[in-house]
Structure formats: C-alpha cells, structure tokens
Amino acid sequence: MTNELLIFFIRHGQTDWNAESRIQGWSDIPINETGKKQILTLAHSLKTEERFDLIISSDLLRAKQSAEIISDILHVPIIHTENLRERRYGIWEGMEEKEIYSKFLNTNILSKVEGQETYKDFYKRIKAYINIIQEQYSGKKLLIVSHGGVIGVILSIKLGISIDKFENATFIKTVAIDSKWILP
C-alpha cells in the first residue's frame, strides 16, 4: 500500500524588502500591497487544483499573512511553525544584496557571519522537519507556505533539483509516494 502525500510549496507574497533586494532572514517583514494581490491571485488559482487538508506555514509575518489570505479563500486550517523559517542571516539582514557582495566579497556564503545560522545547520533543520511532515501527514494534501531558501533546500533534498530563484507568490506541486518524491 502506498501513502501518497501531495504538497504544494508556496513562497510568501512580496515584501518591500523583496522589492529592494534586501536580505530578510528572520526579520519579521510584512507583505506589501503587491504581495497581497499576488497571494489573492494565487489563492483563487488554487481553488481549481485540489481540496487541501491543511496549511503549514512559517511563523514569520510575511508567510503568516500569505497563509491567512490563502486560508480565508480556500477555508483550510493553518498551523504556524518556526521550523519553516528562512535561514537566519544575522548582520546581513536588512542589507541589500549588492551591499553584501561589496562589503563581504571574500566571505563565502556557506561560512558564518555574526548572528547567522550556518548553511549546514539550516539544511539540517529543514531536512528534519520535512521528514516529520512526510511521516505525520502521509495521505494528506498540504499547502506549505514558506520562504525561497526553505523551498530550495527541500527540493534539493527530496528531488535533487536546484532552483536559482523562486519568485514570490508562486508554487511548486510535489507528490511523495512512500519515500520517493516526484514533480507530477
């Protein structure tokens, strides 16, 4: 018997910091008007996809707001968790990407800067939680509302694919059948 788990991974709507190419990490930035419109459009498009059992969302404001808009339209309950938070970037948070490259040109993105979660710790945190989700919600249809970095790590772990940039308010549909993950 197979235990099929359907997951739509959704990146939160746009924030002002996204529009300014600022690193957000754990900074609690709300979605802006564009982000709200993006998520409303996405939520309405999801009405034709499936009947979902649950939304699991990062507890950071931009993901929470996005999940709540989707929940209001699809009438799906939400669980918020810190386990789906973006990578903590420490002193880089709030800085523009170009500023980071100019100030930290010799710093490897995988190395640790002040207050930053190492990539290895981030990867381990996300891997552990996606395995818990797969075990606890087998047979369900889920929406996971999170962050570009989180979704990228999950797709790398479970599907062996790399996505350079995951746009705001977009989704990717995956299916896990027992231990095998696919893009349907």
Describe the structure.
The chain is an alpha/beta fold. The chain is built from 6 helices and 6 strands, in the order E-H-H-E-H-E-H-H-E-H-E-E. It has a 6-stranded mixed beta sheet with strand order 3-2-4-1-5-6, with helices on both faces. Helix 3 links the parallel strand 2 and strand 3 (78-81). Helix 2 (33-46) packs parallel to helix 3 (61-74). The relative contact order is 0.24.
Strand order of the largest sheet: 3-2-4-1-5-6
The whole-number mean of residue pLDDT values reads 92
Structural class, from secondary structure content?
A: alpha/beta
- Overall shape: it is globular
The termini sit apart by 19 Å
- Give a count of the beta strands, DSSP E runs of length 2 or more: 6
Helical fraction: 25-40%
Give a short account of the largest sheet: 6 strands, mixed
Low-confidence stretches: none
Beta-strand percent range: 15-25%
Summarize this entry quickly.
With about 180 residues, the protein is an alpha/beta fold. The protein has helices at about 15-20, 35-45, 60-75, 95-105, 120-135, 150-160, and strands spanning about 5-10, 55-60, 80, 140-145, 170-175, 180.
How does the SSE layout of this entry go?
Blueprint: E1 4-11, H1 16-19, H2 33-46, E2 54-58, H3 61-74, E3 78-81, H4 97-103, H5 119-136, E4 141-146, H6 148-159, E5 171-177, E6 180-182
Parallel strand pairs: 1-4, 2-3, 2-4
Antiparallel strand pairs: 1-5, 5-6
Helix pairs in contact: 2-3, 5-6
Search tags:
184 residues, 6 helices, 6-stranded mixed sheet, alpha/beta, single chain
